[in-house]
Amino acid sequence: MDVIERVTDSATRVLAPNPSPMTLDGTNTWVLQGGAGGSVVVDPGPPDEAHLERILDLGPVALILLTHHHIDHSESVERLRELTGASVAAADPALCFDAPPLVDSERRGHAGVEWITLLTPGHSRDSACLLLVDDRALLTGDTVLGRGTTVVAHPDGRLADYLESLRRLRDVAAEHVDTLLPGHGPVGRNPLEMLDFYLAHRQERLTQVSRARDALGAHAAPMDVVRVVYADVDRSLWPAAELSVRAQLEYLDDAGGTPSAHR
To answer: What is the pTM of this model?
Structure first.
């Protein structure tokens, strides 16, 4: 994967040097430019000076946007703001600086770039996606990855919210999106196929978790369920899988323990 890659008319990916089992190839920082002489930087990533220099080489930064608060997306905000004086906007008002928080369904523009905010809680409570209407592209943060599936980071993230967010994104993508610009992994060229996969995967996992709990007993610990359902997953990912299992167990309890009734 190229470190710097122009993906759409407005969006350039700058890959951060923080690869890991959780971040895949690293965090995708998105630099959005609309021809007005400045840029909007989405998810500046880790506080790596060389990474920030690559962002700055693309032009002056007018605004920093965050898709959510997790540090692999947000840790360098203070340093980038120090270097540029840019304002910061996010769904969580506590993360904002000299800019109003992101509002659902609001069309907003800055430095010649326009987007529509879609608040998509689930992975985290403050997750947001950004629809670049003119590019027919959707910045998805960690709500949808370019490869594999994401964690529902319980208790901050909730599965009921996440499923609703996925359904909403699928509806939007059916009319307005040709390309997914994820927070990690490769660009998604088949948005509907990816979103259908995500929804089917969550249904499959719910069924597996429900069956595992039935076999283990109602008082089984979440990690016991992980050992059954995620047996084929690298053990380094089991702590993250446990968060998703906790979210799935909560969802099943709220739904009366019947995953098939909640597609």
So the answer is: 0.94
